[in-house]
Amino acid sequence: MKKIILTGDRPTGKLHVGHYVGSLKRRVELQNSGEFDQINIMIADAQALTDNADNPEKVRQNIIEVALDYMSCGLDPAKSTLFIQSQIPELCELAFYYMNLVTVSRLQRNPTVKTEIKMRNFETSIPVGFFTYPISQASDITAFKATTVPVGEDQMPMVEQTREIVHKFNSVYGETLVEPEILLPTNQACLRLPGTDGKAKMSKSLGNCIYLSDDSDTIKKKIMGMYTDPDHIKVSDPGKVEGNTVFTYLDAFCKPEQFERYLPDYANLDELKDHYKRGGLGDVKVKRFLNSVLEEELEPIRLRRKELEKDIPYIYEVLRKGSEAARERAAQTLSEVKNAMKINYFDDAELIKAQSEKYSG
Ligand code: TRP
To answer: Which residue, 88, 148, 193, 243, has fewest beta-carbon neighbours within 10 Å?
Structure first.
């Protein structure tokens, strides 16, 4: 069986370092590993509209931001198909048929949807489109016969829902769809990178994100203001590293060889943590180190972005071509789905023959 990736993001803002360690960096590695037969990366504008119906301009403006972030991280249109969800109408058609295979109560149990409903104060006025987006996401994944879905931990319930739909479809209509596997980050810190304020989730409205497109001064300011251990007041105080955002970021980003380069007094992160726990290591020193580590990772991305920003029409052209290619793939799957469901009447010579025999007496 072919190894196929499908993944994507909602274009509701620029991408941040949480997106990067949670999924984006891995996608680039998978792309360059040469192990996959096909890689599809989708800008999920239609899904973004399910809870932004009154603000389509926000979605429209952020498509290019996400595309720039993707390509500056190293997603390469020569190796990966980058496309826009709304340009693939076949996805809606698939979702319409999958809706018959999912119950309302099953959707109500989806933990990610539950949290999002709370976050958006939707309790009494959930848009139907939003409520059903896990089904639409199953269309996204199955339309490409994806075997592998590299995403953040919050997307686990969506992939689970997709697998259920695949099972149900295949058992009712015959083996047609491919069951996808989720691919999560292996590093615990990358699984759920906190905001700079130590809050569990990075979000634009909380103002606690470090964006891939932030300049180096902005990043430095954000790091210097980061949440650490509130009880670590004097340098000599013993400090906590659990729940200390600066150390969580180091867990996610730092590489062993960076100690030699920036903090030669320590052999590795464990030694640095031990010193902090014992007392005698100040926050500023650790923050400066984190700044150097992040700068190493983000500077090349920032520079590539600057180059890409010089030719915006080219980026739209990449997305247009990608959307065309994606549409062909989705159309192929839709045709197989309709065959399996036997709603391909005009291609069904047997049906036409049987019906005419019925009437020719
Ligand atoms: N739900 C994803 C997000 O919030 C975006 C998305 C839409 C997606 N369809 C997908 C991710 C299919 C992976 C696979 O960012």
So the answer is: 243
**C-alpha span between 289 and 295 (Å, rounded):** 10
* The overall pTM is greater than 0.85: yes
Per-residue pLDDT tens over the stretch 75-86: 999 999 999 999
Whether 173 and 322 share a structural domain: yes
Identify whether 200 is part of a domain.
no
| 52 occurs within a structural domain | yes
In sequence order, the β-bridge partners of residue 6 are: 40
Percent of the chain having pLDDT more than 70?
100
Please state which of the ranges 123-127, 193-197, 255-259 shows the lowest mean pLDDT: 123-127
How many domains is the chain built from? Answer: 2
Same domain? 303 vs 324: no
User: Which of 216, 222, 182, 218 shows the shortest CA–CA distance to 202?
Assistant: 222
* pLDDT tens string 304-320: 999 999 999 999 999 99
Best probe residue, ligand 1, of 151, 161, 202 (max atoms within 8 Å of C-beta): 151
Ligand 1 pocket test: which of 155, 159, 181 has the largest number of ligand atoms within 8 Å of its C-beta? 155
- The confidence score (pLDDT) of residue 342 equals 96
Half-sphere exposure of 37 (CA within 13 A, CB side): 8
Domain for residue 359, yes or no? no
Interval between CA 7 and ligand 1 midpoint (Å)? 6
pLDDT band at 121 (very low <50, low <70, confident <90, very high): confident
The amino acid at residue 295 is E
Q: Cβ of 100: how many Cβ atoms within 10 Å?
A: 11
